[in-house]
Structures are given as structure tokens and as C-alpha cells.
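Q: I'm writing up a methods section and want to include an example of the input and output format. Could you take the sequence below and give the corresponding predicted C-alpha cells, formatted cleanly so I can copy it straight into the document?
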Amino acid sequence: MEGRFSPAVSYQFEIRPAGSERAVAAFTRMSGIKMQVETIQARSGNDIRGVKDYVPVFTRYAPVTLSRGVVGDNDFMDWILSASAGDFTGPTGVNLRRDLDVIAVDHKRVPLVTWTLKGALPIGYDLSPMDATRSEVLMEDVTFAVVGVTRATNPDAGGAPASRA
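A: Here is the clean output for your methods example:
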């Protein structure tokens, strides 16, 4: 019962292609999962009180940014860079949109909660400054536009029953 109500920690997570059992890259930070529903106010035709209700119209998802120290992993970066223009062409990538799972794991690497970034499209890459006067890890940020987010819990990890949002 203890694990059921214990919150997941933010520093233990993996990034995987949706449905895969293998992590694609080791990221140290993820930020930006945000959904906002735009509404209009309208009155139902049979509402005799004259009260306006909120009606959802559009859903907007903020870009998501993943950060990591620069490593020699090229497969994931090849996909990221395939979204940019080539020397004489536009984006060269096939299947530029992919679903990515961001998985919060416990201390035994058991998945607790999975957020699936739907239709993730690489839209930005940022390399931290190289500065010989400082002793820091060289970091790179990758930003994705997403068209949806789902959230599921792992019932086998002692968490709450599985759910999708």
C-alpha cells in the first residue's frame, strides 16, 4: 500500500519510442508537458436560466524540451537533425513525427507512470556554450512540438489502477 500513494521522483526517468522496451537516449532533464484547452462560453438553447456554459473548442500543447550531456549517440540525433533542411533540400527525414514515452521509474527501474508525447516533431536543437574557463558538462537541448499527451500508470508497480488521460 505504501507505493500506491508515494509520489514518483523527478530525477529517475527514461525516454523510449512508444511501445519499445529500449531507451533511446539518456536525458537528464525534461520540461514543458503542458496542455491548455481553449473554451468559448455559450448558452444552451433550452437553458431557461440564461447561464453560459464553457464549451471546449481547441486543445493546445506546449513544446517539450529534453536535455542531456553530449554523448556519442548518433541514431537519435540523426532523427532530430533529419527535421532540418539539407544543403539543397528541405527536411530529409521520413516519419518525422514519432510517439515518445517519458517514463518515471522507481529505484529498481520499474516503470511507475508513462507520459506518451503524441506526434513528437523535432523543432529545436540547442547546444550549451563551450567555455574553457568553466568546468561544466556540455549540454544539448532538443525541443519537440507535440499534438497530444497521454498518461498511464503501471498497476504492477504498486501504483493506482492504470489510467489514460
